[in-house]
Write a structure and sequence with these properties.
With 469 residues, the protein is of the alpha/beta class. The chain has two domains: 3-239 and 444-467, Aldehyde Dehydrogenase, Chain A, domain 1 (3-Layer(aba) Sandwich); 243-433, Aldehyde Dehydrogenase, Chain A, domain 2 (3-Layer(aba) Sandwich), CATH 3.40.309. The protein has helices at 30-47, 52-68, 70-81, 90-93, 95-110, 148-156, 170-183, 197-205, 218-227, 253-265, 282-296, 317-332, 386-394, 409-417, and strands at residues 10-14, 21-26, 114-115, 122-130, 133-137, 160-164, 190-192, 209-215, 234-238, 244-247, 277-281, 336-339, 357-360, 377-383, 398-399, 401-405, 423-426, 438-439, 441-442, 445-446, 448-449, 459-467. It binds NADP nicotinamide-adenine-dinucleotide phosphate.
Amino acid sequence: MDGKNARMAVQRIVSPIDNSIVAERETITERDRAAVLDRAATAQREWRAVAVDARITICERAVSWFEAHADDVAAEITAQMGRPIAHSPYEITRGFQERARYMASLAPRVLADTDAPTKEGFTRFIRREPVGTVLVVAPWNYPYLTSVNTIVPALLAGNSVILKHATQTLLCAERWAEAFAAAGMPDGVFQVVHATHADVAALIADPRIGFVAFTGSVDAGHSINHAARERFIGTGLELGGKDPSYVRPDADLVEAIAENVDGAFFNAGQSCCGIERIYVHDDVYEAFVDGFVAATRTYVLGDPRDPATTLGPMVNASSAAFVRDQIAAALAAGARALVTEHEFVASQAGTPYLGPTVLVDVDHSMRIMREESFGPVIGIQRVSGDEEAVRLMNDSDYGLTASIWSRDVDAALALGNGLETGTVFLNRCDYLDPALAWTGVKDTGHGTTLSPLGFDAVTRPKSFHLRFP
Ligand code: NAP
């Protein structure tokens, strides 16, 4: 090994199920990095000349590859990050395909030239050009659902893509590569790197990278911004959330309870747009809380490989310790727990196995109502009406989504106008609709994926202004 290769590190996937090592990989060397960037640039020059329909065909084949391998891919998700096997297949059999196929359906129209109004003696149009090579840095919590949002549009638009996945789910990056290889993607158009944070910064600094799509924590988002500071390239930063829900007195309570419980605890609460805090109108507070508590008690916490398990471990013991600490601080400050982790036999201090906790008598002086928990805990706060609910929903450093539960569409529209979030839901939560822009405000970051706007970041406009001789 020469001096340049000496900086390689080893990344290990430690399963939250039982601390076993699922896989380990060496990170790229400086020489690898240069070669990956070269290959990406060379391949992209040819890929951008491939017709959009042919790009769609290859992406469609890759999506079908995932369908055909859904069982294996789901088991691998469970082993890597602990989601119950009862839920892991949905990651690739539902939203993943819906988003990839929707973006593919938009591509011919959205990527076509935009003609300027007719002007005698001129041809004028705006062409969307690929930005070159797109670097995608992905998180473990929804390893395919998050990465698909940029990988597919970037490729459809004629870019090459380099994917660096979270260490926790690095096998997902390799599955992506397998899918594209099986789909007939030309060499170098899609590549995977196992990389340290320093490697990511070095990639971003390289002039061959044209855009960085990052999904993850606020702290890491700052690091990405910092790494890109000397470059005039775009960064998409899809960061944290503390998404609120507001239950109005006219809500369908049965539906509101079921959906809010699922929104709070699916994936052990490790969802960027999961419900993290709930405000309930006085008039329905007792009924909502009673129903919420009863539904929470139906969860089965345990080994996620068991098909009967509906709540798996958190991703690691330190994330669970963070949530336990938030809960302890809230209790010390006067909150009451109506459901505690101790009701769940498999919940064990010092491990990632953490039963769900339902807290009431909470307020915004408590971390639990302001700091992202990213775990199976919920604070439910009583409110007197719409005005107080909107004030509290907006009292946050984050702004990803907010959901309203009501039969009154006009009221929801009016409330929605005042909410400082990227998405406003009515009678729905924790969902990405590919027809709509996925975006956030405040510390949730900047940039947009999905919808026609999802192509903006991975393309740049070039104006053709031709006067006939
Ligand atoms: P994370 O620690 O920030 O990691 C995300 C990705 O960034 C991983 O690939 C990680 O690699 C890499 N990374 C971390 N620090 C880095 C640095 N300083 N420089 C370069 N790369 C770095 O986040 P996470 O814990 O995996 O994910 C949870 C967070 O993501 C939550 O805050 C959640 O809300 C947010 N999220 C947001 C959305 C959204 O759409 N807004 C969607 C999903 C998740 P390593 O694993 O190798 O460290």
